[in-house]
Amino acid sequence: MKPASWTYAEAFVAEDDVLASARSRAEEVGVSPVSPGAGAALRFLASVLDARAVVEIGTGTGVSGLWLLRGMRADGVLTTVDIEAEHQRLAKETFGEAGVPANRARTIAGAGLDVLPRLTDGHYDMVFCDGDKREYAEYLTEALRLLRPGGVVAFDNALWHDKVADPAQRDEETVAIRDLGRSIADNDSLVSVLLPVGDGLVCAKKIWSPEA
Questions:
Q1: What pTM was estimated for this model as a whole?
Q2: Which residue in 79, 75, 68 sits closest to 156, CA to CA?
Q3: Nearest-10 Cα torsion for 41, 44, 50, 54
Q4: Residues 6 or more apart from 118 whose CB is under 8 A from it?
Q5: Integer Cα distance of 205 and 190 in angstroms
Q6: Helices in 118-202 by DSSP H: which ranges?
Q7: For the segment 91-126, what is each residue's pLDDT rounded down to a tens digit?
Q8: pLDDT tens-digit readout, 128-184
Q9: How far apart are CA 83 and CA 128, in angstroms?
Q10: How far apart are CA 105 and CA 93, in angstroms?
């Protein structure tokens, strides 16, 4: 894809002033939020799923969370997890500026792998992961337990700064993301796609089965 086309696609769904402010906060605290294109894709997925319950690993300053909330049902609840309580405070500011009722965003401060096991099996329509890349495989295991049949899991940074496609790149995070992609693609219980938006967004639908 030519750079001009990528830029055009990323800007296809425009961000408003609330998201711009959230991005400014992210820059101040050293957080890398999802790109506008990835955010629009998350909103689209949440909308198609008519999502009532979504889990997010990696709250940041609320950029991805706001995109998700804008795609969810009006009574939907986002459960968002981050190890940094200060980031979640900033995310609450973002949600408040957007007019999101406080009861629609449940923030939990803690590590993803500590919090996810405490959440309810089969209760969630969507799980979005943007936490520690080295833990992506474990996030997938937890997500498949948490999702209802037909639910979707999505992972940001699936291309990881163009490293994943380069077999010569063997650092721990790149290998973890590359292995995750293979695991998803090879899993017969999932329908998957890798979207070249932002830094890559790999998504997988949990296929319904009588045993699920």
A1: 0.95
A2: 68
A3: 20
A4: none
A5: 5
A6: 136-146, 172-186
A7: 999 999 999 999 999 999 999 999 999 999 999 999
A8: 999 999 999 999 999 999 999 999 999 999 999 999 999 999 999 999 999 999 999
A9: 16
A10: 11
